[in-house]
Amino acid sequence: MTIKVHSPRNSCIKDCYSQRTWIWANRFDIDDAEMATNLLHSYMSWAGQTSKYWSSYGILTPGGNEGEYYFMIAEALYVGTSEEEGDYSSFENTFKEIFPKNRIFEDTKMFDTFHQKTLNQDPEPIGTVSPMVNLLSVFINQTMSTVRINCFKEIYIIIQHTDVIIYSIKKPS
């Protein structure tokens, strides 16, 4: 078991943690995976360059109908306030202009303590209560690079420490 203790930066008292979740939707038969490729490349580039104060999940998953897919950046957690030095605005600055018409969900939550954040999140399942097929699921920050790939067909990705290059994504046939 790994336990990580979170402390606010600079004796922060209010809005010490901000968490964002954004979701985009498209269809493979409409865009030939262009949106997925662009978002994955941008996400991996951003995640590899952000400060140690960011952590997030990037998830590419099929939609409910044939050919649909979603790209989610979930629980993008920043430790610190907008006034502190760092890259607080880097998330919005990176993703606000990438396929904005396909973005179907945007949410930002502020928490005073990490405990408040944990009370707000869904508990992690121990079993497979409602399994979800992910094309790609990534948790990454400056100190950790972990990629879990459950392929529909083929997703090619190369990871070298935090420098990540996506060579190609092939749509499901």
Task: List the domain count as a whole number.
Answer: 1
State the share of residues found in helices, binned by percent.
10-25%
For the residues shown, what is the average pLDDT? 73
Instruction: Outline the biggest β-sheet.
Output: 6 strands, antiparallel
Q: Helix/strand/pairing class, anyone?
A: alpha+beta
Strand order of the largest sheet: 4-1-3-2-5-6
Strand content: 35-45%
Radius of gyration: 17 Å
pLDDT < 50 stretches: 139-173
Give the helix tally: 4
Order of helices and strands: EHHEEHEHEEEE
Shape: elongated
Please report the total strand number as a whole number. Answer: 8
State the end-to-end CA separation.
Answer: 40 Å
Description of the molecule:
The chain is of the alpha+beta class. It has one domain (13-120, 130-169). 19% of the residues lie in helices and 38% in strands. The chain is built from 4 helices and 8 strands. The strands form 2 sheets. Strands 4-1-3-2-5-6 form a 6-stranded antiparallel beta sheet. Strands 7-8 form a two-stranded antiparallel ribbon. It is elongated and about 50 Å long. The termini are far apart. Residues 139-173 have low confidence and may be disordered.
Q: What's this, in brief?
A:
This protein is of the alpha+beta class and 173 residues long.
Fill in the keyword field for this structure.
19% helix, 173 residues, 38% strand, elongated, two-stranded antiparallel sheet, disordered C terminus, alpha+beta, six-stranded antiparallel β-sheet, single chain
